[in-house]
Design a protein that fits this description.
The structure is a homodimer of 299-residue chains. Chain A is an alpha/beta fold and 299 residues long. Chain A has 6 helices and 12 strands. At the A-B interface, α1 and α6 of A face α1 and α6 of B.
């Protein structure tokens, strides 16, 4: 068994001000014992309070893109979210030498991703966590998001901790609170806390030898004309089918002229973040993933 | 057969700036023959251009609440949407003595309402239109929304015309363009234009004796505490079940403390606009409807 131990855990809500489940859950957990475990301390934090008040994702720039080491160290980046990022890095990090062992960041998506555990780094801790969560919540999806990247280059808030994950649950429109989605977020967060408790105490139950997961490959943009105007949308045969196979030659986009644009890749992929409202800013249509397997490092 | 005839029809998109289907369809129809029929003229209009540019529902106040005669005539109401309403009333109305015979206003909702034809007035034209649309599009829902109210008191943009309807399609998050939803909006709009053509030419096909519909009763607010803070959300057994029966005693809300609040009305009702994101501003949870029947006035 590992000698690794986690002393300080932080759960963050409201990193995006219009993703309500995390905000309501943090507010609730501040008044009950939900996040309490014996072997570690848990801090609860609301990240983008100004965007929350305005029911917007962000005020000046996306807070969950401000945590690369380069940005945190660049004192010329001074807008609201760039400032909040530096403060949150002081509170939870500092990145690279953090006082927080695990940051759990709570997010909603408009995409039909169900309860997804997003993992941006590799290692035995993550492998065991992913297997534990899937074992206890079979509907959970494990999403390995650029887990090869040096942590300093990651721009996600959760990468301020020694470990960090995102609990990403959808579908839910921005600014809407859905009961089922909120319960799924609470359930996944509770399982992560339970896992850390077992991990610390060396009391992990017998777990499967392996589980299925998805690893991010690259993103697709919406089709545009020569002047950059959108000329199509995600095809209805893809919409809502997050983490379902997309084979070469399948419909991908429908143009406004009624044409079908097909997926021309050479292998079957698994789209996700399909039609995520917030990604339209960058004209993104979806992320493509490949299927992956996580092996139990204790076997 | 009636001697009524429609000469000028207007189709409006972007009354809410983050409801994308209508905006994209109007832009498309400006460059093709989709909205053209022989017996009447069709005007295409984008209503809240500033909110569209900002990907917001509205800038200062909801444009689709500014068209009561009292507001249109009150020159002290001068914010952006109050000003746009007065200009649109000049273009399509004036309300009460309009140059436009029919205004079709295109909307999206985050609620699971499918393709819904919202009718805010009564009369033979509307009854025939509703029966025609349902006959050709069985998945369409007919929603009679305060159809007893004097037209001057209605605050909807579509009530600037002699006749007016809303094509309301969901579910789709704000700021997202969905292929299926967009196709449903185009299909329903096309059927309305076809109907007007038949109505004008006296060439309506044989239609059913009656169809089912829903009539608005009243709205429900989310549960709040003594200080007006939300203490619960729509119960997962209601979420997504727009136009499905809700019986006395059924779960209605889930409080953040895990309690279930039940529906205490005395008769079965049919909720809609369940969890519509935009209605949170007014703390609305849903609208309740009763089942209604529309009889064919030609039988």
């Amino acid at each position: 068994m590992t000698t690794d131990r986690l002393t300080n855990v932080a759960i963050v809500g409201g990193t995006h001000g219009n993703e309500l489940a995390g905000i309501y859950l943090i507010n609730r957990w501040q008044h009950n014992e939900f996040s309490r475990r014996d072997s570690f301390n848990t801090q609860l934090l609301l990240a983008n309070t100004k965007a929350m008040s305005n029911n917007r994702r962000y005020m000046d720039s996306d807070l969950n893109r401000q945590f690369a080491a380069k940005c945190l160290n660049d004192m010329s980046l001074t807008n609201y979210e760039q400032s909040r990022a530096k403060v949150i890095n002081q509170q939870l990090g500092p990145k690279g030498k953090p006082k927080t062992d695990l940051v759990i960041d709570l997010h909603n998506t408009t995409s039909n991703m169900g309860p997804t555990l997003l993992i941006p780094q590799r290692g035995e801790f993550y492998d065991l966590l992913a297997i534990y969560v899937r074992h206890h919540m079979p509907e959970a999806v494990i999403f390995l998001d650029e887990d090869h990247k040096p942590n300093d280059d990651h721009h996600l808030l959760c990468t301020t901790g020694r470990y960090g994950v995102i609990v990403e649950v959808g579908p839910v429109p921005q600014g809407v609170l859905k009961h089922r989605v909120t319960e799924q977020m609470a359930r996944m967060t509770s399982l992560i806390l339970d896992f850390v408790e077992h991990y610390n105490l060396g009391s992990l139950p017998e777990l499967p030898n392996e589980i299925g997961a998805f690893r991010y490959l690259y993103s697709l943009t919406l089709p545009v004309d020569d002047e950059g105007r959108r000329v199509g949308m995600v095809h209805m045969s893809v919409e809502g089918n997050d983490f379902k196979p997309l084979s070469p030659g399948s419909p991908l986009f429908a143009t406004f002229d009624g044409e079908t644009i097909r997926y021309t890749g050479e292998k079957t992929v698994y789209p996700t973040f399909i039609n995520e409202a917030a990604y339209y800013d960058n004209n993104l249509a979806m992320s493509l993933c490949e299927a992956a397997t996580i092996l139990n490092p204790l076997k």
